[in-house]
Amino acid sequence: MRETKQTLIYILKRLALMVVTFLAIFVICFILIRLLPLTPNLTPGDVDTFYLRMVAQGRMRVDPSSETGYSMVPVLEQLWNFIVNLFKPGSQWKFGLSYAVDKWMEPQNILFSKMPPTILINVYSMIIAIPVGIGLGIYMALKKNKWQDQVLSVLIMLVISVPSFVYAFVFQYLFGYVWKVLPPMRASGEFGWFSPQMTLSLILPVMSMCVGSIAGFARYTRAELTEVLTSDFMLLARTKGLTRAQATVRHALRNSMVPIFPMILGEIISVLSGSLVIENIFSVSGVGALYLESITKRDYDVFQFVAMFYVAIGLVGTLVVDVSYGIVDPRIRMGGKKA
Amino acid sequence: MSENTKTLQNSGETLDKSLFERIDRENIHDQAFETKPVSYLKDCFRRFRKNKGSVVAGIIILLIILYAIIVPIASPRAHVSPTAYPNGYLDNYFKYVLPYNPMFAGTGFWDGTKIESLNERSYAIQTLTDANRPYIVETLEKTHDRVMAGDIVISDTVVYNCRVDTYAVGVKRIDLSPSAYQNLVDYEEENGIVGTADSIIKPSVDYETYLTDYADHLRGNGVIDTLVTTIINEMRTYYENNPGIYYALSAYPDNDETQQPSDKSNMFSPIYDENGNVKDLYIRDDAGDLVYGTYGQGRYTLRVDYFDYSTYFNGFEPYLFFGANAEGRDIFLRLAEGARFSLILGVCISLINFIIGLIWGAVSGYYGGTADLVMERVTDIIGNVPSIVVLTICSVSFTSNGAMMGKLGSAGVLIVSILLAFVYSGWIGTASTTRMQFYRYKGQEYVLASRTLGAKDRRLIFRHILPNAAGTLVTSSVLLVPGVIFSETSLSYLGLINFTTSGLCSIGSLLNEGQTAGLANYPHMLLFPCIVISLLMICFNLFGNGLRDAFNTTLKGAED
Q1: Which of A326, B198, B351, B446 has its CA 20 to 30 A from that of A163?
Q2: Across the interface, which of B389, B393, B533 has its CB nearest the CB of A163?
Q3: Domain of B269?
């Protein structure tokens, strides 16, 4: 009972810390981004709408002496207005407005609309990468220092070192352009997310995402499992009459999963954040592509929202991974002071 | 022996000095070391050498560094005259040419050729060209490209699948000053190629006659006069503004009536006389001789075989080992410059990050307590701000800052923003390693001893703890370099680091160019940068791991 209470306190502490960190990052980013010169590329008809909505958000004020008739509000005042706006019920454009990516849409709506393709390719690649990667790792650990292990180890080293865009290009060129067996780009949005065309066109991005994760999981599993396989309790398990397979599955595998499980959890959380590189190469218009587009088009409100989204995912991911260590392995006492 | 002990026990008495005499002064029965002592570094080096993979990786890194240093110095393309090439060597007529390696000439692999499908008109124009190099190296097959609707043939076009030479850019129109013209003529006379089939200067073409003929043709087909004038003017503008268009021996309007007249502005096809021979379009003077160039407004206008002219003008053949990009720049040279930029950037940023991380980690780890807690929170906040955000903010606010742009220039602003973005959070890794090492060593006895002797904090940090942690820290810093190169390459590949106006390039910006050009059509633009970046990443990782294992003395003897 005392243990659970301690764990709970630890988690709460970490949560509070996370919120504080997030707020600090938010304030820094907010100030820096709002200080950037605002140069929206607007058509004459949009100018009035733009200024009116900026005034409504408390970012600009009517100023007859300035050239445009409006002037910027000081940054700290903007921050205050932002917070007030956030908690005022019924207020519009809480997180600002897009004026380049998807005109007059709110950033959060744009982000949610971009999520399906990102989640789809991430989930597909996870479904493939985790079992294959762990399976390979187990195989290598069991064949330790034999030729199979050595060949696979070299392969994995190569795959981990080579940047993901390199094999994305190789896959796209060979499968998409030379052999023409798979569509080199993602199918257009008119097809449903689970239609055969869409699934077919997602194979290449999923493959490119997978390769790296498979190598990562395999290397990690091999390292953990080889360590566990040489420990004393394995010898005990064998002496008490278990076969090698039984001992490996019941004792070694379970123990080696302790550091791998948090890794999987981390992966699950990062499903929401897209890969900039892969989404760019295969024109998957997901979260990563939105991030990139908002930067290149200088759409700061969208950029800020997506950036904070990435920050939040990073923070939550670290927290969950840290906490899960203690849940998976009771030997690790969370928040325990050094004796 | 027993007597000695007895004497010592009687502590009150004075000891007889003779008891402490050495018995045998001459023969010390210790053997001198026959082997040489092995110093720590020597031992590490020996252990590193044993790891063959790391040694090979080190050699490859060295080769890439040599390539990045030597090529920009030695390549003739890096030293072209700035008046002819104000932005460095680039030749738009040779854009997208494929890699050419003299060793593979004529094999169809790495020799600047590719397979292309040509329609009948282009095939005829290419075979009838008066350029010195044939565009079509080999005709592989003649097929029909049929569009069918059920059993009915809607359209049937003849298609030639050919192996074509991308360096055969054909004949171009150029303007030369009288002195440059004289030099070219002198060169031709020296080599005895004036007026021969191999000459650089080709007979001038009478395109005005072509346009008049074409106007008649259009009127003959019932096109109204005003439209004819518009089309002819458009075509004249097109010809005059495009000195680089392929100009065949003979260029006459196509008789294909299915096409709109406006689509024909850049279409040329050969015309034959009654005997089926090709009629040429050359200008002839009153005596019936060919005219090589026209003179007007102090300039000579010539038609030249561009490949040979380029060789004459530059002093080297336009063959490119790694091909050319969309501007017609040499990828071999650009890649060397890009690798040089990436490597220098990687090493500099790693060094800066290493130093900052070392100091931060040392202070945080040594003092511990509240200082440590506060510093850890600060790193937490800094480390969680995505570097893309910092990079974007830096580059946008610097480029819109007029004073800064004026002082540093476009390239300077780019470098400063890259530096800031990478240094901003790059040191955190080193800082946490250093902090851990300090926690490990600060409680040890020798530190305590030194402290009791009155050593100051600074002395303890820099003279006692840091040297002990140095091995781990230095080896971990080797792996910082590929990390920086990798993120720099990814960000410039994505276009988040924008090189376009700066005149600089990195491996990542070459990848970006390659992707913009299109992977399907120009894979060579991506292939070579990809190979170099992959080799760099693999080798740096192998080399770094080898170094780490070699410096890790706890592994000594374990792997033997």
Answers
A1: B351
A2: B533
A3: 111-314
Tokens encoding B436: 């851990």
The pTM assigned to this predicted structure is 0.87
The more confident residue out of A191 and A142 is: A142
Identify which of A162, A225, A145, A195 has the alpha carbon closest to the alpha carbon of residue B542.
A162
The reply to whether B201 falls in a domain is yes
The overall longest dimension of chain B from CA atoms, in Å, is 143
In Å, how far are A22, A34, A115, B399, B421 from A28, measured between CA atoms? Answer: 10, 10, 26, 21, 15
Contact A163 B538 (CB under 8 A): no
In the block, which residue shows the tokens 């518009």?
Answer: B230
Contacts of A37 in chain B (CB under 8 A): 396-397, 400
**Residue B490 contacts A where some CB pair is shorter than 8 Å:** yes
Work out how many CB contacts closer than 8 A connect A with B: 95
Contacts of B396 in chain A (CB under 8 A): 36-37, 298
pLDDT at B266: 53
Q: Which amino acid is at B80?
A: V
Does any CB of chain B come closer than 8 Å to the CB of residue A172?
yes
Q: Is A271 on the interface with B (CB under 8 A)?
A: no
- Within this chain, do residues A229 and A171 fall inside the same structural domain, yes or no? yes
Residue A92 has pLDDT above 70, yes or no: yes
Q: What is the per-residue pLDDT for B246?
A: 53
**Into how many domains does chain B fold?**
2
Domain presence at residue A102: no
Question: Chain A residues with CB inside 8 Å of B523's CB?
Answer: 173, 177
Identify whether the C-beta of residue B132 lies closer than 8 Å to the C-beta of residue B307.
yes
Which residues of chain B register pLDDT less than 50?
Answer: 1-2, 5, 7-8, 249-250, 252-253, 255, 257-258, 261, 265, 560
Tens-place pLDDT, residues A201-215? 999 999 999 999 999
- Work out the average pLDDT over A308-334: 85
What does the pLDDT read at residue A165? 93
Q: Residue A6: inside a domain, yes or no?
A: yes
* Chain B hits for A28, Cβ within 8 Å: 381, 385
Kindly report the CATH number assigned to the domain that includes residue B460.
1.10.3720.10
Encode pLDDT of A150-188 as tens digits.
999 999 999 999 999 999 999 999 999 999 888 888 877
